[in-house]
Amino acid sequence: MASAAPNPSSPNPSVGGSLLLRPPPPPLPSEVIDRAGGRGLAVWIGEGSVWMSRRSVNPSRRVADGGLPSVGGLLHPKSRSPPVLTIALVVLGVIILIAYFNSGSGVTVTSREAVSRSEGSCTPEVMQALPYLKKAYGNELHKVLHVGPDSCTVVSSLLKEGKVEAWGVEPYDLEDTDSSCKSLVRKGFVRMADIKFPLPYRQDSFNLVIVSDALDYLTPRYLNKTLPDLARISTDGLVIFAGNPGQQKAKVSELPKFGRPAKLRSSSWWSRYFIQTGLRENEGPLKKFEQAASKNKYKPDCQIFHLSS
């Protein structure tokens, strides 16, 4: 008896008592991603069935679709620095920059300004001592020469008295000066000169010579020439304002035009030096000056020497 031909649409016969099923075909490579809230919807289409699954989508994959992610998102996709920390870092950087630029690495001052602002400056002391000098010297304070920085200020103050004729010698530059000082220079009341060399004045040209912030910057070699020359042009004496090593400290970074820091010498050193150069203490004006200063409780920070030749 002939057997019937197998139907291709019928299932396969059992083998070994078990039913052999045909495996389903692999899913088609059709993937559609719905980017909503950072998650994706995947859809596979097979033969006779459609099934879906939701899964997370890496934010970095958005670049392939035309998006431009931020640098912070690439480095730290799920973490961001708090705004407070960012502001604090910016403020700290600004403070560091301000401190750096104010450290003086790019600041320049003229030699005259350096001496006037330094801790060893005695020129401001001259302005404070002028009232007591007037009481000490009286009529002798008629023709006065000031030698030192800010001579324009000292000369201008003396000229306002009306009875005093005053001149000044500026041992430093006169480039950065105000209009008042330039006027004194044009009129010949103030001049710039190197005090290491003899000044262009005749002997006994002035009653009194006041010196400040000048001798402290001279070496003994030039001091031996300058001090006798100052005594030469004075009839009634010298008043020298010198730095006090006990209360002041010269700044090495603020060098004058002479190219060296101030040498602050003790009163005993000056006393010996004055004797060697033939100068003596001017006792009369000294006592009057000390009495007037004590009465007004004036205590100078600089050393003040009253000398006569």
Automatic annotation (TrEMBL):
<dbReference type="GO" id="GO:0008168">
    <property type="term" value="F:methyltransferase activity"/>
</dbReference>
<keyword id="KW-1133">Transmembrane helix</keyword>
<feature type="region of interest" description="Disordered">
    <location>
        <begin position="1"/>
        <end position="30"/>
    </location>
</feature>
<protein>
    <submittedName>
        <fullName>Uncharacterized protein</fullName>
    </submittedName>
</protein>
<keyword id="KW-0472">Membrane</keyword>
<dbReference type="GO" id="GO:0045488">
    <property type="term" value="P:pectin metabolic process"/>
</dbReference>
<dbReference type="InterPro" id="IPR044689">
    <property type="entry name" value="CGR2/3"/>
</dbReference>
<keyword id="KW-0812">Transmembrane</keyword>
<feature type="transmembrane region" description="Helical">
    <location>
        <begin position="84"/>
        <end position="101"/>
    </location>
</feature>
